[in-house]
């Protein structure tokens, strides 16, 4: 950033700098010009991925909502997979995967997420698109903002805010629909019979969408989002970012007639179009900044101007710091960051695939009773009590057998015949107790390892083994 | 709301002392917003909730909220969840409840708190009892019977065992012979002489001809222990056995007598609660 300025000859220059120092705290609404171009088209395409968000709740999968986060039922349905709280470790892997994806992409190409996918960017873009359609271009919009309240202004503003609210409501309902039956929820909202919590979620989302996308806009990127602040530790000199090629552009100068100003020799004609189209109002020519969401709108704008003045495109383009200095970029697989991030990413993905592939259909947990550790029965035998918690995660009842095997000693289950064929109700956890008994003479140690096995009868391929211990008197 | 801060152009009050200006740079806007939100919040809270300490407690607040009300509401909510089960528990017998896996599971879980409050002090959290003092509930040895209905009866009406003190009724030698006999019984080494004395001294009156105690011989009243099994109510050392025979159980005016009183809970606890407590006790390890 400082390279493109002459070295400071005197301290006055330092102070002169602060005169340009401007913190965008939202005092002025940024009305960005919308221009067609390559990156504009790309942005529409990436924004369209959010359509899946709106379609998601209505997809069905073998009789239930394809994506349903059933919080009261403590179950997540994601297409064919049913995620129980016990499987939540996969969520941490998923979060790691997403975080690493963010890091990796940032290291290679900067804030791609911000510019093309972030809900804040996307919703703000939709909101300003509506604004542009209703109130006209930025000049007309600024004029309208300053104009007195005429019927025309009221009509335009009402229409705009109504449409904004409509988008907000739709967003809120869609979000809530991921947590309950979508159709029923619509009935609930339309018939005013939805549960209280559903209204709270809806209200929060309407307020959030309306305020964040309608009013706070780039302020969120500047002051609320941590990503802007930590991006500087994620990018390096190899990262390609929308960059102003100051070697080519400077010294900048305005066009005069058909030619340039006397002093100006660079390609930048200082038309400020790049600033005018920027949704966060930054000047890309100042270098990388926390406000730049790398959306590429300035590239489109600059290219169109370069075309008009008959100069080659790409005065602003995706460029890395090294390339700017004339160094060729190393290939992706030779960069330590890319290698590290890819490795972690692959580990996380492998973990998730492993997890999803091996979700046990029956989750077994056995708790040995601690008080008393063991009981001496009237015939002198030793009895241990165990609480069995077997969760049947399948959607059909399962007949299973429960058997015990011990490393040594004659340990047998009380009512063993009964437990040879028991039924675990579908999707339920009903804990029950079993008793293991042994004659004290047959026990070689105070503690004996035992292995309890649940073997499927309905589905013989199900085998769940749980290791526990049988406690006898001290010897 | 504050005016925007301009770091390059500090505002001042116009006061100046010896070249030192008093600045009036406003706090950041977000700070002012939080400040105003803060005091408005306080005001609303002050009006809605009890906030003014008076001599007899505090004012009520518009919402009329109190901790105890919130607690009672939560209890009512909990009761509402339990209600359908409790209705069933009322009309069903303990045996029927146990046959229904879900209801049985509910009963055992619901009994946890009541067991802790009423039973655990003597019988232990897991029914392990206390050696020589309070009977074990987790084994299969029952003084009065271990079927569910008898357990309900025991909790409802309480129990008080009775064994006469034999110190004055028998000679010292006889008592020692009996003690040795009782210790030998579970080991299968009891002598003919012992059996004869057991009979002559009248022990079989309560403990039965086979010495297997009251419950196994169809008497659910005396609480006479089974002398042939491996479980000892008051300990199996010779001294303990001698003491039991000499001074008996629950004998008035006998200083060293054994105390074995189970209080009656029939008036303290509801029949449903007693039912589920009995189910819990039954499930501890030795229910019949």
**Estimated radius of gyration of chain A:** 33 Å
The CATH top-level class label of the largest domain in chain B: Mainly Alpha
Structural class of chain A: alpha+beta
Looking at how many chains there are and whether they match, the oligomeric state comes to heterodimer
Number of domains of chain B: 3
Find the count of extended strands of chain B (DSSP E, 2+ residues): 6
Q: In what order do the strands lie side by side in the largest sheet of chain B?
A: 1-2
| Beta content of chain B | 5-15%
- The helix/strand series of chain B, from N terminus to C terminus, equals EEHEEHHHHHEHHHHHEH
Please identify, by name, the CATH architecture of the largest domain in chain B: Orthogonal Bundle
**Looking at CATH, which topology of the largest domain in chain B would you report?**
Cytochrome Bc1 Complex, Chain D, domain 2
What does this molecule look like?
- The complex is a heterodimer of chains A (475) and B (288).
- Chain A has 475 residues and is of the alpha+beta class.
- Chain A folds into 3 domains: 31-87 and 118-233, no CATH class; 236-328, no CATH class; 362-471, Sandwich (Immunoglobulin-like).
- Helices cover 43% and strands 19% of the residues of chain A.
- Chain A has 18 helices and 18 strands.
- Chain A has helices spanning 11-20, 38-48, 51-55, 89-109, 112-117, 119-135, 138-146, 151-177, 182-190, 196-216, 218-224, 226-234, 246-249, 273-276, 297-309, 321-324, 336-357, 416-419; strands at 60-61, 64-65, 67-70, 75-78, 81-83, 240-244, 255-256, 259-260, 316-320, 362-368, 375-376, 382-392, 398-406, 411-413, 422-424, 432-438, 447-456, 463-471.
- In chain A, strands 10, 11, 12, 14 and 16 form a 5-stranded antiparallel β-sheet that branches. A 4-stranded antiparallel β-sheet of chain A has the order 15-13-17-18. In chain A, strands 3-4-5 form a 3-stranded antiparallel β-sheet, with no helix packed on it.
- In chain A, a hairpin with a 2-residue loop joins strand 1 (60-61) and strand 2 (64-65).
- The longest helix of chain A has 27 residues, at 151-177.
- Residues 1-8 of chain A have low confidence and may be disordered.
- With 288 residues, chain B is mainly α.
- Chain B has 3 domains: 12-58, no CATH class; 81-158 and 271-282, Cytochrome c-like domain (Cytochrome Bc1 Complex, Chain D, domain 2), CATH 1.10.760; 160-262, Orthogonal Bundle (Cytochrome Bc1 Complex, Chain D, domain 2), CATH 1.10.760.
- Chain B has 12 helices and 6 strands.
- In chain B, the strands form 3 sheets. Chain B has a two-stranded antiparallel ribbon.
- In chain B, strand 1 and strand 2 form a beta hairpin.
- In chain B, helix 7 (172-184) packs across helix 8 (192-200).
- The mean pLDDT of chain B is 87.
- Classes of the chains: A alpha+beta (475), B mainly alpha (288).
């Amino acid at each position: 950033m400082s390279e493109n300025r002459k070295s400071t000859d005197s301290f006055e220059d330092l102070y002169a700098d602060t005169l340009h120092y401007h913190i965008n705290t939202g005092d002025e609404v940024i009305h960005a010009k919308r221009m067609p171009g390559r990156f504009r088209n790309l942005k529409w395409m990436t924004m369209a991925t959010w359509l899946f968000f709106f379609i998601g709740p209505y997809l069905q999968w073998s009789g239930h909502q394809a994506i349903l986060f059933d919080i009261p039922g403590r179950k997540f349905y994601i297409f064919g997979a049913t995620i129980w709280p016990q499987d939540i470790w996969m969520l941490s892997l998923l979060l790691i995967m997403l975080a690493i994806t963010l890091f990796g992409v940032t290291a290679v190409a900067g804030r791609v997420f911000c510019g093309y996918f972030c809900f804040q960017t996307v919703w703000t873009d939709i909101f300003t698109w509506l604004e542009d359609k209703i109130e006209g271009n930025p000049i007309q919009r600024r004029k309208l903002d300053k104009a007195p309240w005429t019927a025309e202004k009221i009509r335009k503003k009402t229409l705009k805010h109504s449409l904004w609210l409509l988008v907000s409501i739709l967003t809120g309902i869609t979000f809530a629909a991921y947590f309950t039956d979508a159709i029923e929820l619509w009935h609930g909202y339309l018939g005013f019979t939805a549960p209280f919590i559903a209204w709270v979620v809806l209200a929060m989302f309407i307020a959030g969408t309306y305020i964040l996308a309608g009013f706070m806009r780039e302020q969120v990127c500047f002051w609320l989002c941590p990503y802007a602040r930590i991006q500087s530790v994620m990018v390096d000199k190899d990262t390609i970012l929308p960059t102003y090629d100051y070697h080519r552009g400077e010294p900048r100068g305005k066009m005069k007639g058909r030619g340039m100003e006397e002093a100006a020799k660079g390609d930048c004609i200082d038309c400020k179009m790049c600033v005018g189209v920027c949704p966060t109002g930054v000047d890309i020519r100042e270098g990388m900044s926390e406000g730049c969401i790398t959306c590429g709108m300035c590239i489109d704008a600059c290219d169109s101007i370069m075309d008009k003045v008959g100069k080659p495109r790409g005065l602003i383009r995706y460029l890395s710091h090294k390339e700017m200095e004339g160094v060729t970029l190393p290939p992706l697989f030779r960069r330590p960051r890319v290698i590290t991030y890819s490795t972690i990413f692959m580990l996380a993905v492998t973990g998730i695939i492993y997890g999803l592939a091996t979700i046990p259909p029956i989750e077994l947990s056995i708790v040995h009773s601690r008080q008393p550790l063991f009981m001496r029965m009237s015939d002198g035998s030793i009895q241990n009590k165990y609480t069995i918690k077997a969760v049947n995660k399948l959607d059909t009842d399962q007949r299973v057998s429960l058997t015990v095997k011990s490393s040594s000693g004659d340990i047998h289950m009380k009512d063993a015949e009964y437990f040879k064929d028991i039924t675990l109700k579908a999707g339920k956890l009903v804990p029950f107790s079993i008793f293991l008994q042994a004659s004290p003479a047959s026990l070689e140690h105070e503690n004996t390892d035992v292995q309890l096995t649940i073997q499927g009868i309905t589905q013989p391929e199900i085998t769940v083994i749980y290791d526990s211990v049988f406690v006898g008197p001290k010897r | 709301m504050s005016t925007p801060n301009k770091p390059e152009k500090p505002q001042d009050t116009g006061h100046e002392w010896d070249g030192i200006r008093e600045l009036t740079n406003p706090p950041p806007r977000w700070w002012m917003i939080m400040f105003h939100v803060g005091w408005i919040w306080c005001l609303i809270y002050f009006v809605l909730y009890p906030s003014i300490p008076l001599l007899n407690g505090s004012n009520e607040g518009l919402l009329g909220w109190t901790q105890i009300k919130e607690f009672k509401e939560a209890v009512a909510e909990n009761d509402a969840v339990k209600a359908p089960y409790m209705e069933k528990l009322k009309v069903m017998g303990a045996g029927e409840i146990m046959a229904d896996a879900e209801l049985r599971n509910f009963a055992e879980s619901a009994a946890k708190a009541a067991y802790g409050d009423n039973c655990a002090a003597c019988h232990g959290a897991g029914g392990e009892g206390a050696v020589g003092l309070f009977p074990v509930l987790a084994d299969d040895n029952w003084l009065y019977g271990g079927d569910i209905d008898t357990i309900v009866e025991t909790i409802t009406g309480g129990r008080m065992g009775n064994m006469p003190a034999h110190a004055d009724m028998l000679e010292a030698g006889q008592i020692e012979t009996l003690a040795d006999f009782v210790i030998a019984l579970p080991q299968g080494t009891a002598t003919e002489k012992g059996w004869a004395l057991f009979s002559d001294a009248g022990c079989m009156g309560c403990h039965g001809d086979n010495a297997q105690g009251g419950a196994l011989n169809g008497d659910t009243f005396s609480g006479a222990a089974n002398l042939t099994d491996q479980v000892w109510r008051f300990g199996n050392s010779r001294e303990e056995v001698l003491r039991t025979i000499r001074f008996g159980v629950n004998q008035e005016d006998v200083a060293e007598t054994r105390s074995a009183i189970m209080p009656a809970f029939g008036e303290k606890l509801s029949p449903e609660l007693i039912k589920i407590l009995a189910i819990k006790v039954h499930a501890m390890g030795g229910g019949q």
